[in-house]
Amino acid sequence: PGAGAALRPCSSRVAQDGINKPVIDRIIRVDHAGEYGANRIYAGQMAVLGRSSVGPVIQQMWNQEKNHLKKFSELMVAYRVRPTVLLPFWNIAGFVLGAGSALLGKKAAMACTVAVEESISEHYNNQIRALIEEDPEKYKELLQVIKQFRDEEQEHHDIGLEHDAEATPAYSVLKTAIQLGCKAAIFLSERI
Questions:
Q1: Which of 83, 87, 180, 182 is the most buried (most CB within 10 A)?
Q2: Residue 40 or 13, more confident
Q3: Which keywords does this chain's UniProt record carry (predicted)?
Q4: To 5 degrees, how large is the angle CA 69–CA 75–CA 77?
Q5: Is 25 exposed, middle or buried (0-12, 13-18, 19+ CB in 10 A)?
Q6: Whether this model's pTM surpasses 0.85
Q7: Nearest CA among 37, 61, 63 for reference residue 123
Q8: What domains can you pick out in the chain, each with its CATH number?
């Protein structure tokens, strides 16, 4: 560069021309929070069941969640989205939910997985519909990410069912309570 020319560092920002910034902010913020919470749930489950027969299954799902969190962390930087202020709460609540369900047994841990992943899959489907209605071409990359993660969350849901989640005592009560918590977490993380 010539004398006096400023060097500009490379940026990982996304061109934001024409995007619906409030919608994208909400989507990325809540998805980052959700993936953060999922990581904490699996961390709690592994703390209790890591050495059990389902430990490797939980670890495999957790590894995918770690990739999801990494990607949404990158998207937060690229789109310049602030995280939810509730992350410290989700840190504790996620771990307690994971460890608490695991303390009830392997089936209850899988029931927790089914409840959470069903809620997240539904949430991702709602986001996919919203982005397609807005402009599928403009949000093509984000749609690909959300669709891939939705499919992986659905796999986790199915793994939970394969590991006898529905055989958990009071399964429907546990599932309903967890899903109500998920809906509240989604609502709050989108906004705060």
A1: 182
A2: 40
A3: Iron, Membrane, Metal-binding, Monooxygenase, Oxidoreductase, Ubiquinone biosynthesis
A4: 110
A5: middle
A6: yes
A7: 37
A8: 21-190 (1.20.1260)
